[in-house]
Design the sequence.
């Protein structure tokens, strides 16, 4: 059982449901992050490394990351569920308070790399925490319609790969986007689910 401050750290299911529904033999590893046994990490990490990404995308990721990321940057992936009103109300709205709690408990020197499916999230976090603490990749495509074009999808991948370079990750509940970023990063980042 975790400490009171990390009760949502791996919030696979709210409250005690996760303990009752996950198997002790670790056969269900989706969204389990650091609780995934090393055996499975050793199998999956090399598979993610085999994925070939276009060189121009890798170059953009590396250039931006080199200029903007350091050990004081925490990756924050915010899934608003803008495409599903029920999930938006059920998962996103209550999660915002938990995200604020995580961000406000970070050290003053920490900055936040924000990756989201909504441009409005980034703007609201800049308004709340300031430009000096909030980072985001400068996209040319709007996030709300990124899935509709090659450039938008490429910039989604860039966001994911940049997120994978952070060592600490605040992840939206049930987000496979941040899970994939965690795997691309070698399954090494510390993860807090909000």
Sequence:
């Amino acid at each position: 059982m975790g400490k009171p401050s990390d009760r949502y750290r791996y919030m696979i299911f709210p409250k005690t449901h996760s303990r009752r529904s996950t198997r002790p033999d670790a056969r269900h590893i989706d969204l389990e992050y650091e609780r995934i046994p090393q055996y499975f990490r050793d199998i999956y990490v090399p598979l993610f490394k085999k994925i070939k990404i276009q060189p121009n995308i890798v170059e953009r990721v590396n250039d931006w990351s080199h200029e903007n990321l350091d050990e004081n940057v925490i990756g924050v992936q915010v899934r608003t569920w803008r495409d599903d009103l029920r999930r938006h109300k059920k998962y996103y709205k209550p999660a915002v308070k938990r995200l604020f709690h995580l961000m406000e408990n970070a050290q003053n020197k920490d900055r936040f790399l924000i990756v989201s499916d909504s441009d409005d999230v980034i703007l609201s976090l800049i308004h709340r925490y300031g430009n000096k603490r909030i980072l985001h990749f400068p996209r040319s495509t709007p996030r709300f319609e990124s899935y509709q074009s090659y450039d938008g999808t490429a910039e989604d991948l860039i966001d994911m790969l940049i997120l994978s370079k952070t060592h600490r990750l605040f992840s939206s509940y049930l987000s496979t986007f941040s899970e994939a970023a965690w795997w691309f990063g070698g399954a090494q980042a510390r993860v807090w689910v909000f």
Notes: The chain has one domain: 8-13+31-193.
